[in-house]
């Protein structure tokens, strides 16, 4: 089920892993593009419903659905797969292969590649019994970035030409390396059971861990530095906010002192010329006006404030919604999340689902409006 290709360059890593090194096809390197919205809200097709469906037996008759209109290559594999096997499957990213590789690099994961051959006799049983089993779905979603392609079309055909599978179903675990090369850490050909697939993938993860630990250690060090910088920026922001509040307090106190000083400069003769009752009323009215003015200013400012509503989705499935001012910065969202105590003090970052955009330390000082989150946005909290 697993094989090596003698025609490819073979290297042995420091812990004894043998992996093939293959070069990216020029068409894949030049085909890096952004996934455009074609009536699908999320980059992952089937999100928000596939977990609620029961696993169907292999002999369960599927209704004849009309062929979906898919104008982009990125959606062709998932459209074909879900038409025949339903929506309960691993999270296959509907994107170009290079984009999946980049996401895996950012998340310190490997890419699980599945080349789908619809006409192969082993394909239906493998999809129903192995790829759509709950244990395989949970394991792949937790540990890999999954990407699939049709073996006879588009980038799936290009990857099949590069990896040269001898049989189908074909799966591979790949990782990026320097230059235009790709490290094939493991490949599986032919039908395998869910238990066998999980065992092979688990062993591959354990073996390749030390081979990539050096690069990942550098990445972790960078993450720690970014986290420290974010904390320092938050501290500086809070200090600046406290200074602004103190300035406002002193300004309001100075205004009240000026009003009191002006009232005390009224001579006794002027007081006698005025009706005492009217004067007292005037003082009461004047005093009331002086006290009400800041409140009216605050009220008028409140009307001018543009509210930004942010919905935050946690890995546990819990959702929180909070309102901010459009002039608040991205760091205000992080402080709100920290006040909830739901992350357990762990490191995290905020990501928009589609199009995927990361809001981390580099955007901490950007206002919500400038960051494109106004008037409302939905963010996913991603644990690091």
TrEMBL record:
Database matches in Gene3D superfamilies: Glutaredoxin, Phosphatidylinositol 3-kinase Catalytic Subunit, Chain A, domain 1
Cited SUPFAM superfamilies: Thioredoxin-like (SSF52833), Ubiquitin-like (SSF54236)
Chain intervals with Basic and acidic residues compositional bias: 217-230, 249-260, 293-302
Keyword GTP-binding found: no
Keyword Methyltransferase: no
Keywords: Ubl conjugation pathway
Location of region: Disordered: 211-230, 249-302
SMART domains: UAS, UBX
Protein name in the entry: UBX domain-containing protein
């Amino acid at each position: 089920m697993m094989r090596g290709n003698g025609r490819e360059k073979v290297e042995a890593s420091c812990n004894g892993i043998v992996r093939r090194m293959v070069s990216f096809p020029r068409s894949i390197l030049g085909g890096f593009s952004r996934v455009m919205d074609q009536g699908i809200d999320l980059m992952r097709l089937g999100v928000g419903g596939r977990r609620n469906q029961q696993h169907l037996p292999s002999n369960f008759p599927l209704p004849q659905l009309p062929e979906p209109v898919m104008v982009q290559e990125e959606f062709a594999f998932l459209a074909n797969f879900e038409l025949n096997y339903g929506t309960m499957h691993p999270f296959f990213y509907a994107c170009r292969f290079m984009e999946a590789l980049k996401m895996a690099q950012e998340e310190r994961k490997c890419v699980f590649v599945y080349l789908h051959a619809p006409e192969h006799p082993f394909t239906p049983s493998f999809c129903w019994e192995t790829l759509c089993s709950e244990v395989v779905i949970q394991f792949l979603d937790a540990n890999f970035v999954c990407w699939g392609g049709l073996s006879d079309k588009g980038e799936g055909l290009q990857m099949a030409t590069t990896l040269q599978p001898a049989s189908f179903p074909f799966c591979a675990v790949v990782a990026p390396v320097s230059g235009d090369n790709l490290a094939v850490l493991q490949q599986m050909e032919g039908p395998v059971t869910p238990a066998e697939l999980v065992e092979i993938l688990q062993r591959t993860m354990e073996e390749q861990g030390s081979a990539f630990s050096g690069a990942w250690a550098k990445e972790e060090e960078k993450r720690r530095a970014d986290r420290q910088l974010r904390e320092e920026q938050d501290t500086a922001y809070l200090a600046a906010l406290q200074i602004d509040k103190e300035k406002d307090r002193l300004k309001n106190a100075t205004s009240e002192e000026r009003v009191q000083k002006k009232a005390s400069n009224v001579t006794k003769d002027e007081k006698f010329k005025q009706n005492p009752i009217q004067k007292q009323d005037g003082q009461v009215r004047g005093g009331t006006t002086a006290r009400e003015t800041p409140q009216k200013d605050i009220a008028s400012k409140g009307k001018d404030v543009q509210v930004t509503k942010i919905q935050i989705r946690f890995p546990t499935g819990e959702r929180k919604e909070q309102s901010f001012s459009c002039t608040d910065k991205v760091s205000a969202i992080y402080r709100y999340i920290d006040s909830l105590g739901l992350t357990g003090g762990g490191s995290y970052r905020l990501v928009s689902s589609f199009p995927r955009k990361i809001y981390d330390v580099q955007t901490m000082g950007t206002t919500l409006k400038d960051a494109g989150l106004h008037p409302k946005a939905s963010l996913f909290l991603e644990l690091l």
